[in-house]
Design brief:
The chain is 42% helix and 11% strand.
């Protein structure tokens, strides 16, 4: 399963609580004349980007290109400062009033909290803001609107989650490694049983059983997206997972654990990358990570009944503008420059992550022709579902994760009871402001 680096890990509930303690010290975004002048102001700006080595290389080149053409509006760039998580660092900077103008690694799950802190600038406040986002991203952009109808994040890049499998382990188990039977829940379970019973592996799949709220993004949520054609965990302020489709996914995972096809222990590392499991849920970042380590294949995440073109979790990171920024006019122009077709192409080539563009496959047809391993991710990128942009987002996910672990993983409560209780509590959390 994917492990979060310092700059990509997401916030714990405790960290968000600490961040929230500083709300009184923060001003709102507002629609004042000073805010209007800020959106037009030009001059030097500061930005932060991820500490991922490939993104750092892209970021430095992007900044150098901008600065060469705009000597009076230079970018001062750095990696997100070290901390427990990048989101905690950003939240603390908002509270202190010294956040950078732009952060090129804003987790969608943290946006509602940053917005509540008064720390974000609505991108709709720029005359061409809404249109630029719509033109670049298409209908997928709608998932990133906040509950007030505004956009506080620019959809930037995604890592659509698919099902990776180890061809060597599959072959050892006597399975067809080139055309595996993984099209439905029944096929997935039968393949898992064969993998373990053959002795080829002790674990067919090893999603983390840890209680961290984000772990559901790499077990339940991609399968739920596939089984519902892209339904988010919440829709119109109401939980959706306490349904037949949600329980089908939960029951499938419950079977994996009951039959000892998946471990209930936390693996310190990457179980798939180290050959300790035969399958894993991951995005295109895994291609470079598993190169020369795993003889892998990948298929779309299966639904209960086999279907073409299933949806999945996006695992996106976005760009946001922070309200401490004085020269917001420049910041907006930099945001557009950094997400232009040219810069998106360089990001794709340098990192293998999918720019969130509606024309992705056609705009970079030459790249995908030369790098066919990434083609399925480009196709999948248009069928992704995001973390719902709702108040108390982290608490919502923690509530779900606790119920899921208690029922599905450890069998201490029925799925019906756990999901019903979690849905009721989540509806209440989502209704709070």
């Amino acid at each position: 399963m994917k492990r979060f680096s310092t700059a990509t890990r997401v916030l714990s509930v405790a960290a968000l609580t600490i961040m929230g303690a500083g709300l009184a010290a923060c001003g709102g975004g507002g629609g004042s004349s000073s805010a209007d002048s800020a959106t037009a102001a030009k001059g030097p700006i500061k930005i932060w980007y991820s500490n991922n080595e490939f993104e750092v290389k892209w970021g430095k080149a992007m900044v150098e290109s901008w600065n060469a053409a705009h000597p009076d509006q230079k970018i001062d760039a750095q990696e997100i400062p070290a901390g427990k998580s990048s989101e905690e660092v950003i939240g603390a900077a908002i509270t202190a009033g010294n956040a950078p103008c732009l952060v090129f690694n804003t987790a969608p799950v943290a946006v509602p909290q940053f917005q509540k802190q008064g720390g974000l600038v609505a991108l709709d406040s720029f005359p061409d803001g809404a249109q630029y986002i719509k033109d670049r991203t298409g209908d997928l952009a709608d998932q990133y609107k906040s509950t007030d109808g505004k956009m506080y994040q620019l959809p930037w890049k995604s890592n659509p989650v698919v099902l990776f499998y180890n061809k060597d382990i599959f072959a050892k188990a006597g399975l067809d490694a080139e055309n595996p039977k993984l099209g439905s829940h029944a096929e997935f379970l039968e393949t898992a049983r064969t993998l373990v019973k053959s002795g080829a592996t002790a674990n067919a799949v090893w999603p983390s059983p840890a209680s961290d709220f984000f772990q559901s993004w790499f077990d339940f949520y991609p399968f739920y997206a596939a089984n519902t054609d892209g339904t988010p965990l919440l829709k119109d302020g109401k939980a959706t997972f306490d349904s037949e489709e949600g329980k089908q996914v939960a029951t499938m995972f419950e079977t994996l654990y009951k039959e000892n096809l998946a471990s209930k222990e936390v693996f310190q590392g990457d179980a798939f990358g180290e050959g300790k499991s035969a399958m894993s849920l991951a995005g295109p970042w895994a291609i470079a990570a598993y190169k020369d380590k795993v003889n892998w294949g990948a298929v779309p995440v299966p639904a209960a009944e086999a279907k073409a073109d299933t949806s999945t979790f996006s695992d996106a990171k976005n760009v946001a503008m922070y309200s401490a920024c004085e020269n917001q006019g420049t910041a907006w122009e930099v945001m557009k420059f950094a997400t232009s077709q040219e810069q998106d192409g360089k990001l794709l080539a340098g990192t293998g992550q999918m720019p969130m563009r509606k024309d992705l496959a056609t705009a970079y047809a030459d790249y995908f022709a030369k790098n066919p391993l990434y083609t399925q991710f480009a196709e999948q990128a248009g069928r992704t579902v995001e973390v719902p942009n709702v108040p108390n987002s982290v608490e919502v996910w923690q509530t779900f994760r606790t119920a899921y672990a208690k029922s599905v993983i450890f069998g201490n409560e029925s799925i019906d009871s756990a999901f019903k209780g979690a849905a009721e509590k989540i509806d209440q959390l989502a209704a709070q402001k």
